[in-house]
Amino acid sequence: LGYLHDDHGVLHVGALTRQRAAERSPVVAARCPLLRDALRLVGHAQIRSRGTIGGSLAHADPAAELTAIFAALDGEITARSARGTRVIAAPDLFVSYLTTSLDPRELLVEVRIPALPPDAGWSWMEIARRHGDFALAGVGVVLAGRRGVIAEARIGLVGVGPTPVRAARAERMLNGQAPSEALWAEAADAVRAAVTPDGDIHASAEYRKHVSGVLAQRALREAYSRARMAA
Questions:
Q1: E strand or H helix at 13, and its extent?
Q2: I need a labelling partner for 178 at 20 to 30 A (CA). Which of 13, 105, 106, 209 fits?
Q3: Alpha-carbon span 203 to 226, nearest angstrom
Q4: What is the distance between the alpha carbons of residues 212 and 138, in angstroms, rounded to a whole number?
């Protein structure tokens, strides 16, 4: 279960693939650089050398970077048990804190994540107290379009709720629009409205909500700078 390959625009990742292996994979760099950039901020190199892609998703920590990538890109997993095999899509996997829809008798055996469109721009941004700590808030953005108009926007967040958050309203707001600073600011407000963070000893709920919008606006700007929308 330690494999990783691209099959017709979908990354197939064995559940036991080490995070470090995915981070350094030329396939991931070429087909899903958003995943590569997020993996670089998972703990430290020693942790990524032991932690697995499947393990992170099955653990379902809502501050884990991989959960937001999986949600934003509409990933899916294959789960297997003595009763058979089933596919679970991203919206159906995460239930609450550290809780998934996997049955106790099931094993997660494969993760599938669609590759980014060839001309898409991407950005992963997060804030943590120290390098290697879990993110207080993090956001992944993908933007694709043509002729100066956004055709597809994807936004996933971590650290701002009991599960990873897909900012669907902000995505709809962006689609069909010409990029601008005003649009980024409007989308950032929609991101803040989409999250319901809890406060803890690390950061208040108000801080997490505020910074999620700040990070989203910065990530949208960076993703657009990497996108090729002129054609």
A1: strand 10-14
A2: 209
A3: 31
A4: 7
Q: Taken in order 43, 46, 47, 51, is the CA torsion positive or negative? A: positive
Does residue 231 sit within a domain?
no
Domains identified in the chain, total number: 2
Q: Tell me: the pLDDT tens digits for 141-186? A: 999 998 899 999 999 999 999 999 999 999 999 999 999 999 999 9
pTM comes to: 0.95
- 52-72 b/e with 16+ CB inside 10 Å = b? bbbbbbbebbbbbbbbbbbbb
CATH number reported for the structural domain that contains residue 47 in this entry: 3.30.465.10
The Cα–Cα gap between 112 and 11 comes to: 5
Tokens of 177: 């629009």
Domain with 25 in it: 4-114
What is the rounded distance in angstroms from the CA atom of residue 93 to the CA atom of residue 46? 28
